[in-house]
Amino acid sequence: MTAPAIGRPARIGRALPRGLVLGAVAAIASGCVTVAPGPVATPTPLSTPVVTAGPPTPTPVPTTTTYVVRSGDNLNSIAQRYGLTVGQLLAANPEISDPNRIRVGQVIVIPPPDAPDTGPSEASLGDASQDVLDRDGQIISTQGYADLGSFSASLANDRRLLISLQLVNAPPPRMDPEYEILRLVVVIDVDGDGQPDFRLLYANDIDGEEGFSWSLEDRRTGEIRSGSSFPGSVTAEGRRITFSVRRAALGAPRAYRMAALVERVYSPGGSTDPSPEYGVDHAPDHQWPRPNPRWLEVGGV
After folding, report:
1. 57-70 average pLDDT score
2. Could you give the CA distance from residue 25 to residue 278 in angstroms, rounded to a whole number?
3. pTM
């Protein structure tokens, strides 16, 4: 066996082809090395952080409370105490059919300030007999046709307001105003400020009219509409007198708050009598312009 020549390195593996070796040497010599492309990695997109929202903040729900009726209370005074309307109290207490009839010890639901306002379509109250007062506020005895027995109102439809006054006795069909004057008055508050905006009158001493006639006065403007210009009609049937008034003539408000009175002036010596007999009966009692006003209310729809 022949020994390898000294000074020559031994070959390892197969020899590269001469052309390939020369090409690689030339590329290195020129300083430009081309690397064959390999597989390109697709970059992973950055994901948007997901924020998990907690439960929504609840909107505070207005809560209701209750009130126990005490002696001397009425719905109007309770409503004023809590900054509400009578209609709101009625809507929250549907068992109250007549806003003028609540009893001591009754539990009233007091709704939140933004509660619905839905008043009754009709309301009424009775008035005690023999409670006619003189100018000094003393009870006097007088004719039954000057004494109120009841007072009621209703919304007949979206066009008419009906108001009825019932007397203890029917008035005479004819009364000479020279000696005796009888006036039935209903005042109406339409803006809730506790002051009358309109005045209905049924009387036998209306200027320019004979016998019993009627009128509507707008207390804000002073306009008086009577006779053929009256916006409605009045009927007298026995001891009941009913006004039928077009709601548009009252401004078509959401609610009507009313009070009534019957007034009698009797002058035995004629209109020049220095001391005529005077009597008045209010319904509700203690009504405007006296303190602690109360009202008969319909509407709120």
Report:
1. 73
2. 139
3. 0.67
